[in-house]
Amino acid sequence: MRSNPLVAQRREDAAEEARAAAFALAERARVSSRTPPLGLEELRAQFRLLIDKVMGEAALFAPEAAALALKQAEGDVHEAVVILRGYRQVLRRGYTSEIIDTREMFVQRRISSAFREIPGGQVLGPTLDYSQRLLEGRLASETMETVDGFLREFLGTAPAGPERPVRTFGKVSDLLLAQGLLKPVEGDGDRRVQDLTREPALFPVPRSARLQALARAETGAIMALAYSGMRGQGGVHPTIGEVRVGLVEVSVTDSRGRRRSLGRIQVTECEAIAKMRAGRKNADVPYLSLGYGLCLGQNETKAICMGMLDRGLRDGVDTAPAVSAEFVIYHTEGAEAWGGLNSLQLPAHVDFAAELSLLREARRRRDGKREVAAEARRLALSDPPA
User: Domain ranges in the chain?
Assistant: First the structure.
């Protein structure tokens, strides 16, 4: 039976009108309070950690675009990530950057739980780690006057004298490498460079693809897997050699072979030191091994979890979710998981009607068999014995 093109077009028009009306209702819900609209500058400045999380999961360093996506999504991080990934897909990729040297990072925060004293010292930097995690009632009545007062007080407590020169710091792991206690990662596994945004994941994937997947992964998802490893589910329970947050320079080589600097971006890096491991055959000396994490912005939780999962995935075993590359990569992809789960809200009338039809037919057959059996028992009871 051929469908009527006119009827199909009318249905499509009606569906489009319904979608437009639903979007208008959502927009009305966003602005119905008639409060002053949030500016992108305010979002970038006061929700910087949330902006960093959106950029990291979208794999695009674009703070203003991330703020716009977050505003459009009414604060729904998963929705904002999907929006920003869609924007990323329309951008032209003109160059591939050179390898970033984090030893040249302008450090804003740098801590180590492995050593009390490290070259250059611990740099606590901006963090909420040392707060009491109690509601700050003063923020409910915060004004520009209180903000300016805090800034004046903070600047007034800064030490006087000449400013210290900008310094970069070597890696804590270099200390262990120099003593032969830490096994270098070079030569450990597949060294191919693969871009999962352009090539499908064909297992076993190289380490570059695993790290890219973890850098784009949903922070809560990899945190759950890394924590499962800490609790003995096949993973590792490391010591943090170093976590550092800072600015790194991004450079490219132009068509004439000249090195061009594109500026600096903020990243978080973690080197997680795993416990002692047995040497290979004919080697009687154990060694420490390293797990690595690097992500956009300031997101120390993600970087630490990346380091833990990276170390576990390099063993090449599949005894638990946290050490199964296929499980980790497929089930920590937040945007894909969000899309798959929310697709359950889309119309599935035909499929569900087919399932109901099969169920009703099965029940009809069952009831028919029961009636036949009951009739047979009735006849057996009514017949006189021979």
Answer: 23-89, 102-127+167-340, 353-386
